[in-house]
Amino acid sequence: MSETTNPSPVPPHPAATLILLRDGPDGLELLVMERHAGLRFAPGATVFPGGRLEPADHDPLWRARWPQGEPPADLAHRIAALRECVEECGMLPTCAPPSSAALAELRRGLAAGEGFAAALARVGVAPALDRMAVLARWITPEMLPRRFDTLFFLVTAPDGQEPVCDGGEAVAALWATPRRLLAEEEAGRRRLVFATRMTLLRLAGCADMAAAMACAAIASAAASAQGLPAPILPQLVETAAGPMFRIPAGCGFLPLETSAESVRLG
């Protein structure tokens, strides 16, 4: 059995994804959105809100917004995940419930190029930075021309807010159980990239939000000395059963090997 590698992989862009959770009649539900079919990366795929980090996400002024104590090492990733969630589906976990008008104005400001911090201050909204919990860190396989180093966060969905897609990146949004989304992909009615599918497989065993957040607590306990989870970098390997994408043992996700034929990377 051998491992396939790219001698000169493209450096991955730091990114963050936010998984909004709620308890529904059939158990744990997640907010997902469908990406526009004309996008270059993952066209038409069902994903969680998220995107790459921007320089402003690293502004030292964000540290003052942390409720108390030393901010976590993933603070910039938290900022990016929240910002992308507002931009793409109009939802934002906050310290106090915002009005729908404030959320709409915040989104308009971001669309017009206003900085996230400035827009938050102008509309008087404080994001709930400390209520997010990191579940995993996925890195795009090395053979791809577009790569991301992404932290996946879990957070309880804010009460009274409903998703409103931006129509650019996100064209549809829905609440669904992980099992439903996986079944729809198997039936050919939904497209899932590998990291999304693996996340759904892990959360499919969680009966409710409490169980899902417990998964994130395990990931946090296993974080590296830098305060970030160990990266999960799928490797393409040749096996007796054919090419497989393999992930590290002990990473918390199963299966460890998935046939390359059934893996969608972008």
Automatic annotation (TrEMBL):
Keywords: Hydrolase, Magnesium, Manganese, Metal-binding. Its cofactor is Mn(2+); Mg(2+). The keyword Manganese applies. It comes from the Bacteria. Signal peptide: none annotated. This is Nudix hydrolase domain-containing protein. One of its GO terms (molecular function) is metal ion binding. Residues 11-198 form the Nudix hydrolase domain. The keyword Magnesium applies.
